[in-house]
Amino acid sequence: MAAGRWERVTAALAPGQALVLVPGPAWRYVAGWSPLPDERPAFLWLSGEGRAAALPALAREAAEAAWPGMTVFSYADGASPAPAVQAAWEAVGRPQRVALDEGCGWLQLRLLEDALPGGFEAGPASAVLGPLRLVKDAAELAALQQAQTINDAAMAAAFAQLAPDRTERELAALIREAYRAGGADGEAFILVAAGAHSALPHHEPEDTPLGSGPVLLDIGCWKDGYASDMTRMAYLAPVGEVPADFRAVAEAVEAALVAGLARLRPGLLAGEADAAVRAVISGRGYGPYFTHRTGHGIGVQVHEPPSLAPGELLPLPAGTVFSVEPGIYLPGRFGVRLEEVVVLEDAGPRLLSRLSRSLHVVAV
């Protein structure tokens, strides 16, 4: 369990309340490790009176190694998990109020209801964990920076391999290899969109040659349980000349991103950050073609709170990490998106990426 996180989580619980998590990002955030999410039920219980886990026997050894001092109750395949669930509940004080992981499925919920005598009152785990996960601690910031440093190198490697006859899928494979060489724990996602595909915000790589024209690269990897994310643009241009209409859109997107960064300060509402970016794009006549929110939080998930979307009233605290990623997408023609992930500090945003946002032009 991350140093100090257990104390912060338990301090956020109401008297007599327990946090109940299932395998996934919330469990990984609290404990630093999570069992493989599969059909075998598993629960992590945390309260002011203790911590315990109920999980399949095949995960017991890994759990005890990951959590020294954790009380672990296990069950064998073919046996009912109910006794282990009830034993874990008893080990944390038999709470009747629980903050339940929103990832808990229907079958897991029925198991809890059947295993715990007298039932329980449930609320969302995000009410407890949300404020904690929103503000990153020093270890989280270090992991996020390491993931982004690897991401920068992978993007630079991709730029070096741009060629008209290379396909989107082939370029994605080269990025994947750069992640392995850079020490990433794995890819989070790799989006490569060439030509008119760049007008599709989440286009996945196909066997389409890059050809001549724009290439949108939106990529991210995992390192020590934390994700990276960034978007950059390239242009494969005959004799190195980029069309004026593309440059106009690219300049509008860059101006919007710069305006958004300039507006960011602790206490700014998430919706106000979105509005600062959106105003620039609308002012240049491209408002209808900015079709998504300005940004999202990043941490143990690629997308997590905060959401920088129109009307969002959440004040952004110092220590929050999120993306700023304006885009303009002209259907059937091309799209441009630029993305930075920032740490919001008292003096303003600090960029995790050190890679230039300038359009990478390749003469073909």
Summary keywords:
about 375 residues; Creatine Amidinohydrolase, Chain A, domain 1; 10 helices; six-stranded mixed β-sheet; Creatine Amidinohydrolase; metal-binding; 18 strands; Creatin/AminoP/Spt16_N
Summarize the structure.
This protein is an alpha+beta fold and 364 residues long.
**What share of residues is helical?**
25-40%
* CATH class label of the largest domain: Alpha Beta
Sketch the major β-sheet: 6 strands, mixed
Number of domains: 2
Protein name: Peptidase M24
Domain Peptidase M24: 143-345
Family: Belongs to the peptidase M24B family.
Organism: Candidatus Hydrogenisulfobacillus filiaventi
Describe the structure.
With 364 residues, the protein is an alpha+beta fold. The protein has 2 domains: 133 residues, 3-Layer(aba) Sandwich (Creatine Amidinohydrolase, Chain A, domain 1); 229 residues, Creatine Amidinohydrolase, CATH 3.90.230.10. Helices cover 34% and strands 26% of the residues. The protein is built from 10 helices and 18 strands. The strands form 5 sheets. Strands 4-3-2-1-5-6 form a 6-stranded mixed sheet. Strands 7, 8, 9, 10 and 18 form a 5-stranded mixed sheet that branches. Helix 7 crosses helix 8. The longest helix has 23 residues. The termini are far apart. The mean pLDDT is 95. One of its GO terms (molecular function) is metal ion binding. Keywords: Hydrolase, Metal-binding.
